[in-house]
Amino acid sequence: MPTAVRARSGAPEETSADTRVVPLFEGESLPGDLQALVESGEAKAALRKLAVTHEDDRRVIVVGLGKRDELDPEKARVAAAAVAGRARELGAASLSWDAPEGTAAAVVEGTLLALYRFDRFKTSNDDADDDGIASLEVNGDEGEVSAARVTAEAQNRARDLQNLPSNVATPTFLAERAGEIAEEHESLEVELMDGEAIISRGMGAFACVAQGTYAEPRLIVLRYEGGSSGPHLGFVGKAVTFDTGGISIKPAAKMHEMKFDMSGGAAVLESVAAIAELGLPVRITAVVPATENMPSGRSVKPGDIVTAMNGKTIEVNNTDAEGRLILADALAYAVEQGAERIVDLATLTGAIIVALGSTFAGVFSNDDEWCAQVEEAMGATGELGWRLPLHPEIFEITKGQYADLTNAAAERKAMSSYAAEFLRQFVDDTPWVHLDIAGTAWGLGRPYVGKGASGFGVRLLVEVAKSAT
Q1: pLDDT value at residue 32
Q2: Among residues 94, 162, 91, 154, which one has the least CA distance to residue 127?
């Protein structure tokens, strides 16, 4: 059951919730009898430290937030996640937060993301008798609280898509989800291209990846018209619903995680759903190329040459470098559709995990101003990125021996930058930011998303859309 969220005003102790949350800052006292918890050492001001007590018939959770002047939204999300976990353990049904100024939205996000569970396929559930936290109230602006609920719920829906097994979350399943999103909002329309349409549009790079699987591919296009006079945004998300590597097959270890190779597409779909629900005054064309990458007698082979939508020819020297192939045509399509600013999200390279771990997504861009705007949105949402270089010397490595480009050179150098330089060849001069989210889409490890599917990118894209208005 989803958690109901509302803003509240008035004295914190007057709440009707069964559990209220009281913040504790370093060097500051708690009101009334709660100060005894500090003096006894039971309540501590360090971030995420918790103490539980009771007043009348109500439970009180005291949460440490560190120094007041060092509190930021990310720390508030982390603290809210700790509170949500403890409240759930204690059987709380309703939670009331006395959120410090400027943190109401972060508290909502941290709470809802931390309460997420994916148990759809479990026949027995240890938490079957736990109805969870049915309601959350936070003191703060009603608009901010409501918007935070919308984005957090969208992120959790993206996590659902990520967590579904690939025999359920097929390309056609994602296309159906896009159709559902469009039906829910008059400001959205959807276009779905099947394999034949993909080929007829000249998308040879996308088509070559899809030809090895018996699952029908889809190019999913969501168009949002929010009545903006600002730039036409293009959101592009990689959605390989299962990636075996094709003929260049991956090792068996951890291959089951390759159901997550559609995480960029999931983030794009659900971010657009949130943007439509919020009614943001912006124009967006979202493009999600969805396919499996499978080995079969009809799969693309190492050494094959294909032609992308923009006319560039590509030597496919590694069929496991498939994400850049489907993105090449998706990016070219976004440009053709008139996108004036583009962001793409893709679980693209294992090399980005070696470089940045799970703390940062890799950020690559051909435009400093647009990149700075996206990086500002990253700071606001805690969905962090670190900019890495594009360079003419790296571009030289992408040139093919027999075609314009090769999707994987023999030289294993700067592999994440190499992939980004490859993609840059399909955006012309359109300002573009590429986010390599292979390290952040799952296994992020932040307290509010844990080590499973993170839904990374949903709140970021919503923030980008807000800042573009």
Answers
A1: 87
A2: 91
Q: What angle do CA 352, 357, 358 make, to 5 degrees?
A: 110
Residue 306: beta bridge partners? 314
Token pair, residue 102, equals: 């400027």
Which residues are known to be catalytic?
A: 250, 324
Q: What does the DSSP assignment read for 95-150? A: EEE-PPTT-HHHHHHHHHHHT----TT-SS-TTTT-----EEEEES-HHHHHHHHH
CATH superfamily of 152-467: Zn peptidases (3.40.630.10)
d(CA 48, CA 59): 18
Q: Which of 48, 13, 15, 8 is nearest to 34 (CA)?
A: 13
Domain ranges of the chain: 4-140, 152-467
Q: Evaluate whether 426 touches 332 at the Cβ level (below 8 Å).
A: yes
Neighbouring C-beta atoms of residue 403, cutoff 10 Å? 18
pLDDT-derived band of residue 129, with 50, 70 and 90 as boundaries? Answer: low
Helix (H) or strand (E) holding 199: helix 195-200
Which CATH number does 4-140 carry? 3.40.220.10
